[in-house]
Structure formats: C-alpha cells, structure tokens
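In this supplementary section we document a worked example of the pipeline. Step one takes a protein sequence of length 429 as its only input; no multiple sequence alignment statistics are reported here. Step two produces a three-dimensional model, which step three serialises into structure tokens for compact storage. The input and output of this example are shown verbatim.
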Amino acid sequence: MRNAEYWRGRFSILEENAHKQSDQYLQNLEDMFMDAQRTVQADIERWYGRFATNNGISLMEARKLLTTGQLEEFHWTVEQYIKAGQQNNLSAEWLKKLENASAKFHVSRLEAIQLQIQQQIELLYGNQLDGVDSLLKQIVSDGYTHGAFTIQKGLGLGWDITALNQKKLETLLSKPWTTDGRTFSDRIWLKKRELVGTVHKELTQGLLRGDSPQKITDAIKNRFKVSRYQAGRLVHTETTYFNAISTKQVYQDLGVQSVEILETLDSHTCPLCQPLDGTVIPLAQYEPGVTVPPFHPNCRGTTCPHYNDMEGVGIAPIGHVVRVEGVQEETVDLGFALYYQRGWSWEDVSGYVTEAINGYFLELAQSWADQDEALVVRISQIESRLLGITGILDIANTTINEKAANHTLALDHIPVLGSLAPTTIEIKA
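The serialised model returned by step three reads:
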C-alpha cells in the first residue's frame, strides 16, 4: 500500500486537472461576455444617435419623447427576435415576453432598446448554461474514472471499473447541494435576471439624468464585468463540488473507509481553509459543502483516501484480505520537433501537450490489468494526439528516451511522463 504522501500528491493532481478544464472553459466564457458587452454598447450608441438624428432634435429633446414612437426604431423587429430565440432554445419566460411585445401596435423607443439588450443577455446565458452543463458532466465522468484508477494503482489491485452510466450522471448533476436549494442552472438564470435588471436600470436612469451615451455604456460595462466575475466564481465552486461528488462515488465503490482533507494545494489556498488541511473524517460523514470542500465560493480544496500505512497488505472492496505486489512506474522522456501556426509558440501549447501525453499514458496504465504482455509506448500514438492540439500544424523527429522508436516497458510497469524536449521546425522559403 502506498504512503500518505502518494495519496495526497495524486489526488491533488486530479483536483488541479479538473480546474484546468474549468479554466479552459472560462477563457471561452469570458470571450462570450466581452462579445455580448460590445454588442450591447454598440446597440445603445447606435440607437441613441439614430434616435436624435432621425427626428432632427437634440439629445435633450429626445429624452422627452422616449415613451412614444413605434417599432420602426428597432435594429431588429420583435418577430426576428422571436425567431432567433426559438432557434437558440431560450427560456420560455423570455419568449413569452417577446410574443407579448409583438402583439403591441405601439412599442416605446425605450422598450425597444431594452428588448434588444435583453436578447443579447438571453443568448449569452443560454450558451453559458449549455457550456457549464457539458463541463460538469465531463468533470464528474473524468473524476470517477481517474479516481478509481488512482486508488486501484495505489493499492496494487487491478479490476474493471465501469464509467458512470448516464442515469447516475444526471442524478448527480441535478441534486441541489447548497442550503438555498438551488442547482447550478438555477444560479445561472438568477444571475441572468440580475444582469437584465441592472442593465435596464442603468439605461433608464442614465437617460432620465441626461447622461451621455459614453457614461451610460461605461456603467453597463462595469455591470458586465461584475457578472463575468460571478460566472467564474460559480464555475470554480461547482467544479470543486462535482469533483467531490464523483470522488465520493469512487470511495463508496472501492471500499474506502476514511478520507483526508487537502487544502494546501497551490497559491489558491485561503487562510480560512488552510487549518483544515490534514483533517481525517470517516466516509460516513462525507458531505461536500459541510465536512469536505467546497467550504465557500471559489474553494479549490479536495480529499484523498486515508489508510493506516501497511507494507504490502490491503483489503479489497469485496472484503477479501490479500497480499499484493503493485505495478511500478517507469519514467518516459520525450523529444520532438513542432511546426506551429502563425503566432503560436511552445509556451502557448505546452500545457495542452502535457495533458495529451498524460492522457495517453493514463490509457496505457488503465489497460495494464488486462494485458498479458508488457505495455508499449508508441510514437504514432504520441504524434496523433499532439496533431489534434490547436496551434500545432506538424510534428517530426519524435524520440522516446532519446531513441526514434517505440518503447517497450518492463513487465508490470506503467509509463509516467518525465522530461519534454521540444524544438521548432524551421520553415525554409
């Protein structure tokens, strides 16, 4: 059986990998927020200027007429918004509001721009809900599979672990876990309503005060900034929770009796959680948000199995006492030459390269129990995975342990990534 440091190190890595997935998603989400923000700002500036220009009056005079006018001032017609909403599976509440607006013969110019702004926010949060749902499903699935493999390897045992079935996955994702009884989807829609309300308020009050278009758009920009931060906090908190849920399922399936709380993982550790590091609790008391992380928004703590250290003796989940000889790790060093897309470099792709290779090595390690022969690390498999990474156009001169050939591991050995030695392919005119 492995010692305590092994369990702490391995499960810290699993937690970090989960948050790397969420960080990658948040980069895309931030781009979506910025695009929506810029569109809203442009819509307001265009509408504000067109309103005064079309009517041949000053902005001061225009404010007096904001409650009158017809739908002609729309950038889109309401019917077009309804069609777009239906195509993008937006909320029934929003679609109903659009339908009600379309039934009106007269729509105020202020209401027109409010509808136009809300359309952008509805699209933004609809995409966010889809993205977060997909992310958390992946985190739960990966957390279960990788956690099961890590425990088996640490105990020196080998047996088949099936992935979570779809029904079990949906059950885990749909269960509220906070005291207010809200799911992550509830929280996303709540933040959407808050942003719609604050943006409409900033627009209306700014117009009544006689604020310039720049002042109004600056205020709305700040509201979007707050919402981006809230979205990031939600994703990180939910990532920690659902990784904890998948890990608990692994503990239950593999007969783990006690767990240890890990809170000194990286620079994200907070002063409130640090004193809890090393706390051991029985699995029966395992409750995310109460006895194990997340303890607060943005919490990145995790847990690992806790065993009494015994050399070569363990208890399998089925209750049989066994003496086992575990597999051994064998370090594998890689070298290769890469041809990048214009503007890309090793710094941009290094994290994805490491993740891809570790994923390949994990697949090999997971297949160990079913193999009668030694595992083989293959150049073709390494190259095919690296060619699937954005920013990499080609790969050549791949070596394994400084040899341009496949590498056969020793019997009962599994691969562990050692050093990476990338070079750049020079393009000759």
